[in-house]
Amino acid sequence: QVQLVESGGGLVQAGDSLRLSCAASGLTFSMYVMGWFRRAPGKEREFVAAISRSGEKIVYSDSVEGRFAISRDNAKSTVHLEMNGLKPEDTARYYCAADRISLSQVVTQSQFSYDYWGQGTQVTVSS
To answer: Which residues fall within 8 angstroms of residue 9, CB to CB, at 6 or more apart?
Structure first.
């Protein structure tokens, strides 16, 4: 049974930093592109960042480029999202997702490509 468990969310002030983690089990982690998505109240779920199987290719949404950093540890089956310079508009529930991809350098941004999802962790940024 595949499980993705996010942690690290919380209530912070604008300008603060948070580090989200996602622990994966029940899958061959290195065979999956890992992504982070978020859903703010009243909005659609949106892409935040994704990292290729090898970790060599990374893509960010324009809204977080330069502030957030995604990384993965295939030996520990974990993916992280380092969030710096947080803004109130970053307030959302953040989800980790896994996409089974055969190519090592591919990164997927469409949520519809992802096979497995975690339950999410809430990030609230006060002004």
So the answer is: 18, 20, 94, 121, 122, 123
